[in-house]
Amino acid sequence: MTEATPLETVLKRDRLIVLGGLSAVVALAAAYTILGVGMSMSAITMTRMAIEMPHMMMRTATWTPSYALLVFLMWWVMMVAMMVPSAAPAVLLYASLARKRAATSAPYASASIFLAGYLAVWAGFSAIATALQWALERLGTVTGMMEIVSAPIAAGVLIAAGLYQLTPYKEVCLRHCQSPLTFLIHHWRRGPAGAFRMGAEHGLFCLGCCWFLMALLFVGGIMNLLWIAGIAIYVGIEKLSAGRPWLTKVSGVALVLAGVWVVARDLVLPA
Q: Which of 104, 115, 126, 178 has the largest CB neighbor count within 10 A?
């Protein structure tokens, strides 16, 4: 057995530091989401109520600037918990390349800047999702359980998400997410500003890949832990399934069929 070279030892240490930091970020974000910090009830309680009383109607909250900030934080932290695990390969590869290219003597610090750029994109998405949630609640489309109350609208979101899975734009964005090494090689920039920009660019590709899947949270319940976990697991599987384009196609067809089923069920069993 050959001994590890000094460079391999350093790279292994860097990977452990970066992976430990990513794990801590995900753990904190998951805990924040599960406990529903600042919200009227925890995600655990809302998930249990959704299972035990699926048709329960609750009054929506009164929107104030402080409540809007809480909703934004809920969305953003939830995105951190859902997206950072699937972005970990890109962050780890960035740290490794930064060390090898001698771009920085502390690649884990630079990797943090890369991650900050990535999360900034999802902060923008979270701001839009917050505004959309506020608008839908004002229209009476979203309940106090944070899910779409109208079956036709829920079906429309499912069908639209399914059709998006079949589009070329989805395919292009997914290809970049599935090949982080190729992305980093072709988009490499030096310095902290370059690290942030690279992270943001990678985040934009991931956003283009997953934004409609995240919109499904409005269908199953924004704070429904089973729904959150299911979407996060699928996103991770999809990003790790390079060379298996059929997976995206199958999920797209499944979502369209689910939307059709929701409409049919509503017609047969009207509320």
A: 115
CB 177 within 8 A of CB 93: no
The 10s digit of each residue's pLDDT in 82-102 is: 999 888 888 888 888 887 765
Q: Is the dihedral of CA 182, 183, 187, 193 positive or negative?
A: negative
Least confident residue range of 28-42, 57-71, 252-266: 28-42
4 or 71: which leads in pLDDT: 71
- Specify the 3-state DSSP secondary structure of 99: helix
For residue 5, the 8-state DSSP code is P
Considering only CA atoms, which of 20, 115, 19, 134 is closest in space to residue 67? 134
Q: Which residues pair with 148 in a beta bridge?
A: 142
The two tokens of residue 171 are 């395919």
Please state, in angstroms and rounded to a whole number, the distance separating the CA atoms of residues 122 and 128.
10
Residue written as token pair 């998930």:
47
Contact 232, 81 (CB under 8 A): yes
Q: Give the distance, in angstroms, between the CA of residue 143 and the centroid of all CA atoms in the same chain.
A: 22
Predicted confidence (pLDDT) per residue in 61-87, tens digit:
788 899 899 999 999 999 999 999 888
Both structure tokens of 23: 């794990």
Residue type, 27: A
Burial of 43 (0-12, 13-18, 19+ CB in 10 A): buried
Q: Give me the amino acid identity at 136.
A: L
Residue 129: strand, helix, or coil = helix
Full-model pTM: 0.86
Cα dihedral across residues 95, 100, 101, 107: positive or negative: positive
